Here is the input.
Amino acid sequence: MRNILIVILVLFLPFYSCNSFLEEYSQDLARVETVSDLDELLLGSVYYPVGYIVDDAGLSFEGNPFNVFIHFMSDELQQNERTNWGSTFGDFFGYYTWQRQVGIDAQGVGVSSENVCWNLAYQYINVANMIIDELPEVDATNETEAKDKIRVEGETYFLRALYYFTLANLYAPPYNPSTAETDAAVPLKLTSYIEDRPYECNTVAEVYRQVVADLDRAEECLSQTERKSVYRADITAVYLLKSRVYLYMQDYANAREYAEAVLERNNALLDLNFYTETETEEGRVNVFTANSSEVIFSMGGHFLSNYIFGDTDREDRFCYYISDDLANVFDDDDLRKTYYIRNSTYGYVYNKIVWGMEHYGSGCDVSDNFLFRTSEAYLNLAEAAALGGDEATARRTLGELQAKRFRTPLTITESGNALIDLIREERQRELCLEGHRWYDLRRYTVCEQYSWSKSYRHAFTEFDMDQNPTRTRVYELEENDEAYTLALPQEVMDFQNTISSNERPERGPVQVINY
Here is the structure.
């Protein structure tokens, strides 16, 4: 039997540094020999680990936040202009103001690391490659191991697809059927061994084809297995991701097929008309938890709530809060205006999935980026049906979701562009602050039937040592802005100059207010 020396997992230098990410394994002695070994390696080094806050006073992290910055680039958050609390704990200035060099600080003098999430994604991809290569060499000794081997293979392909899909939607232009074959995306690394060669970016079409191929294999494997945990991918999670991928590709027939496949397995929706919030010693119980019937899959932690004004009266503790753009899309009859966001004396605050503020780490058990819920399947189906010419199904499906979210059932009569606008608004409301909005804003710009883009602004206020505001700079993301795509991390460009990056523009303020 061929064994894997774990030490080679840390040698893929073009995409990540030599971090000790296999803490449970001896890097010079450990060998993978059984299906169980591969399963442990998958769980510990391909699934993104749960992260949490472990210290109320110092607010230290256990684990690394993954792509938290996407929330700050969208139109869902705005800076707290009253306080500078937390600004040094999570500096998102470069992302929040759409700078070309996203690691730059507010003073323009310091640059923090830009490649953390890039490195992590490729780190997990590389371990996935090694598991895929090793699986044929590992024998299953009984029926249980044989089933586990199929499950491990399916989960590994699912995760590799998810990471590449995420990278493509950060560092590549949105999928445009007319340009996808030539638009540069990210490098595809599918081998488990070290390759001494310069890497170049594959095209958007090539990356998406690989994502679909991986998901096809994941579907083949996981259709033979049972759900293990909400924190492990199963066939329903595969169906939902395939629906999302095809929707982004504007392949509406397949997007619809897989959204329907999700709902055939799980069509549960929480009826907010009968939902009552409760309090525990640890704080408020979240609307969505790992035990929710809507939750299909969750991976990673929920760090976002540490940065935004949530379920507390301490407005000075948070450097961001719910934007006017987001608050204004909810009308008063929408129950989510109470349960997803909530009005307070300070403004609208986050109320959907939030840490227990008095007991950090105990208030949230689902992700702020990799949370799969049934409501997305309803929205994917409605959008795919409408853009595929079946508006009746789109209206019916959207109505089924809205019936569980509004006090008074709505009558949907919209058609054409108005129906698409309604579906997009519903998506903005329902999936708010779950990591979808930035990606949706990108893909709407290239929709062949009903393209749409918006211009919006972010104001960034600086403070003196006494917490008095000194200056506010206002930045604008314009319609169809090139900044909807991140430039490749500077560290990657410095390490390997054969990789070409996009032309994300430099960005200055459109308005400056001095105090």
Remarks:
- Residues 53 and 61 are 5 Å apart (CA to CA).
- The radius of gyration is 23 Å.
